[in-house]
Amino acid sequence: MKNASSLFTAMGAAATALLLSSTAYAATHDPAAIQASALKDTLAYEITEGLTTEVGPRQAGTEAEARARDWSVKKLKALGFQNVRNEPFMMPTWVRGDETAEVTTPFPQKLHITALGNSPGTGEAGIEAEVVYFDSLAAMKAVPDGSLAGKIAFVTHNMHRAQDGSGYGTYGPVRWTGPAIASQKGALAYVIKSIGTDYHRNPHTGNTNFPEGVKPIPTGALSLPDADNLERMIKVAQKSGKPVKMKLVLTPKNIGQQESGNVIAEVTGRDPSKGMILIACHLDSWDLATGAFDDAAGCGIVTAAAKQIMDQGKPLRTIRILWAGAEEVGLWGGKAYAKAHTGSNHAIAMESDFGADKVWRVQFHLPEQAKAVKEQIAQALLPLGIGANGPKASGGADVSDIIDSNNLAIIDLQQDGTRYFDLHHTPDDTLDKIDPKQVQQNVAAWSTVLSIIANSDVDFTMPPKE
């Protein structure tokens, strides 16, 4: 009996210790406490500053993006994250050359233009041709095939600022699919009013594509003021029956398959059987600026939030950080991640890739059994001025493939996009546009959500797709 008594005493002591440990763990991972700590965060800004200052522009497949990966691995290791590594992949690489545009007649003047990603060149001598104006993409679609032979097609639009950035989806096809349509109509080249909302002489670049069987044609984006001026010139010239001619010089080139890569780091959880939380941003940027809003700030935000959780001790679930490569030029990093990790034990995916201004809304795509978690998150975010409404979460570009292949749950923390398309893909996307206080609010929102979902034992498995 003496031995049994000792055993019961030992078991009681162990149970007490476990209870005290669990109580202490719950206290340190309290969402409200973590939120308060995150509102004082400086790491997110530090990462944004480091990437934009020590690396600068980071176009995919270039030496600059390679330097960014080296910088990132060193930084994430120094911060104490686990399993930090670079997962390389190959991708086709396009680089910019010279780019000029000028109206040669009847109102000679230079215009500010930048080539769109994947545009072929005009040759060093450039091309000169009559400009045919369309007030919408639909108007250009309506003309007969071949009717633009030997002409430069010009399409404008009427995009305005919006908190949810919805204008991008409406007018983005002018850039995404417009060049291929112009080619099918016979155009020699294609220019657009930049898909943006700022009225500075800063043209917005961005990717475009030509489907198989469609001849690629030189394609550029004019700054908004220059596009509006070109529209006025055409309308004035039409009154006298004179054509407006433009000379366009674009000399980009494709340099073939080059290496990019995804930088990955983790906060390892206590229970590997629980599905991990994937939080993403993208490391690459366009070459026109240092990519502060798009997307160094996103990498700073998600990483600082993960660090807030890590500093409290191991969460229940592993949090995996994905700094994706080559997002801007074709989502190559997200595709490579999904190919390498489909079937891995993921639970929820999240992404920050819409600038650095305040989170104003949270959206969910969770299974029914996670209803209480959803309500807990919504309540915990109220002190930050974040509402829970709107459509269901859809995830970000770099997590879309892994979401689709693994049928993952999603949480979106929607940032205020009112000024995002003033800066997006322009020379103005620089560190001075970052408001540290708004970044801290982002970190607090992310930290709050992570503290809840990374410590939840709810089954986040989504029902089969219909």
Task: Please outline what is shown here.
With 466 residues, the chain is α/β, with parallel strands linked by helices.
Which helices and strands appear, and what pairs or packs with what?
Layout: H1 2-28, H2 31-38, H3 43-55, H4 63-78, E1 82-95, E2 99-105, E3 109-111, E4 113-115, E5 127-134, H5 137-141, E6 152-155, H6 166-171, H7 173-176, H8 178-184, E7 189-193, E8 219-222, H9 224-239, E9 245-250, E10 253-267, E11 276-282, H10 292-310, E12 319-324, H11 332-341, E13 346-351, E14 359-365, H12 371-381, E15 387-388, H13 400-406, E16 409-415, H14 420-423, H15 436-453
Parallel strand pairs: 5-6, 6-7, 7-8, 11-12, 11-13, 13-16, 14-15
Antiparallel strand pairs: 1-10, 2-3, 2-9, 4-8, 5-9, 10-12, 14-16
Helix pairs in contact: 2-15, 3-4, 3-10, 10-15, 11-13, 12-15
